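note to self — DONT lose this again. spent like an hour looking for the file last time. sequence + predicted structure for the chain T wanted, 218 res
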Amino acid sequence: MNLIVVGDSFCSSAQGWPSALADKLGLNLICHGIGGQPWWNAREFLVGLPDQTIEQAEHLVFVHTNAERIPTNNIQIGIVDHSNLTLAEIDQAIKLYYKYIHNHEFLIWAQQQWFFEIGQRWGHKKITHLHAFPWSLHCNKLPVGMNVITNLCSISFNEIAADQFTLINDQRPNHLNHHNNQELARQLAHHLNQHSNTSVELDPTLFDLKTTKWFDWN
């Protein structure tokens, strides 16, 4: 049986918490996480899997990212530092997109339709939702399945006592140190073994943290 994990940089290192979680559950891991990518990238990977692979999945774990990331299959766009744009063509394309095309309401709506599709296509499976950032937690169409309401970015920032919101050039696997990768896997395994369609919180006292201020951030 399979454990399928899809998302962005918070699951981009399969050897971190995804692998540890698969080991604790006794499942074969299929992990697809790419830094800076929109939810559309995760969707394209998942819908492209053979039906048999999905049917052999004991658990589907989603790491939901920022709804406002540009919905594209161009992976290069997701790894460009938007705060330091140069005159390169792709940098100018991103700059002009956000200036003339970007539509906040549409992108929030589109991500909510993704949540709806998850329930429609895979609602018969055991589904777990992690949130890279807190914003998708406040959507009015939260997806079916077990919803982990402790966002991963807060754990990551508290681990290093970050002073500002940025993950650029962060070399930590899944933006977590080794202990926190393992602890995330341990807590997720506990909740997945008692899986229900409800909201759960992670226990912050068991993570290696220098501060807790980012838990109040939203």
